[in-house]
Amino acid sequence: MTALVRLAAVVARILAFIGAAGVVMMMVHISLDVALRNLFRISIPVTTEMVARYYMVATAFLPLSWLELRREMVSVELFDFALTRPVRRVSDALVCLLSAIVYASLSWATWNSALSNFRSGTYVELASMKMPVWHSYFLPSAGFAIAALTCLLLTFQDLHPAPSEETA
User: Where would I find the Tripartite ATP-independent periplasmic transporters DctQ component domain in this sequence (predicted)?
Assistant: First the structure.
């Protein structure tokens, strides 16, 4: 089980790194566009589309599993203080299971949309070119699917804690 958790942690870190790289690339791209526009009256024609269709999508959806694994998603712990450790583990497992179901549903829905856009070769028309954007439709589906698998792993981990975690 610990090997699966370590593998999930590695995959989650890689996806979080890709999301962070998207933030940096977006910042550089926008800064370059603004500087070129103000200094030389030259605009990079794909800035808006790249930010909206690639950088923001990667930043929003790829790090989901990393947040789940670190248990840093938004949560309301209204009654946790009153629960015993075993009951809290079951509560956490149920929340993780529900999250996995929601993520899997979202992954299924976005996968169908991604396939539809792939088949049609979705693109954005710019002044002098057509920029393919169908690739970006696969990012939410991948992020949701990996987050669902991570939540399932956490559910199992909550229901079957390691011996050292039971006494802690």
Answer: 26-158
Which three-class secondary structure state does DSSP give residue 76? coil
Asked if residue 71 has pLDDT above 80, the reply is: yes
Amino acid at 25: M
124 forms beta bridges with 131
**Which pLDDT score is estimated for 1?**
66
Vertex 65: Cα angle to 62 and 70 (nearest 5): 130
pLDDT of residue 4: 86
Please work out, in degrees rounded to the nearest 5, the angle formed at the alpha carbon of residue 84 by the alpha carbons of 82 and 86.
145
| Distance from the first to the final alpha carbon of the chain | 19
Query: Does some domain include residue 105?
Result: yes
What is the four-CA torsion angle of 54, 58, 61, 63, rounded to 10 degrees? Answer: 180
Total domains present in the chain: 1
Q: Which amino acid is at 24?
A: V
139: containing domain: 1-159
Q: Identify whether 167 is part of a domain.
A: no
User: Would you mind telling me the total number of residues written for the chain in this entry?
Assistant: 168
- Residues whose CB is less than 8 angstroms from the CB of residue 96 and which lie 6 or more positions away in sequence, other chains included: 68, 151, 152, 154, 155, 158
Say if 109 falls within a structural domain: yes
